[in-house]
Design goal:
This protein has 102 residues and is mainly β. A hairpin with a 4-residue loop joins strand 5 and strand 6. The longest helix has 4 residues. It starts with 17 loop residues before the first helix and ends with a strand.
Length: 102
């Protein structure tokens, strides 16, 4: 259920990173959950999924602890409240929304 994630400005020498500073809400056919990316290259969700993330060229990639992995193109200039669509690891269409981290 972990997502392919389109992201912006991910730790490429930037002092601030929207995904690390905030959270990513994911909504799809299996429900809704929140992803928390950390500066050390790890992530967790509010539903118990965890793994690692990294930037590979112009793609943002995630890998679950289970080994499932996905990449999507980076997106520029994301701000809290921005939404876009993509696919999760199951190939389902999902909506991503950048939200403030609580």
């Amino acid at each position: 259920m972990i997502v392919q994630i389109a992201a912006a400005l991910l730790l490429q020498g930037m002092a601030s990173d929207p995904l690390v500073e905030n959270a990513l809400q994911v909504s799809g056919p299996e429900g809704e959950y929140t992803v928390f990316f950390e500066a050390d290259g790890t992530y967790t969700t509010n539903i118990g999924i965890a793994g690692n993330w990294h930037v590979d060229g112009e793609e943002f990639c995630v890998e679950r602890e289970s080994g499932a992995a996905n990449c999507q193109p980076l997106m520029a200039d994301l701000a809290v409240g921005d939404s876009w669509t993509g696919q999760n690891a199951n190939g389902d269409d999902v909506t991503f929304t950048l939200i403030a981290r609580e």
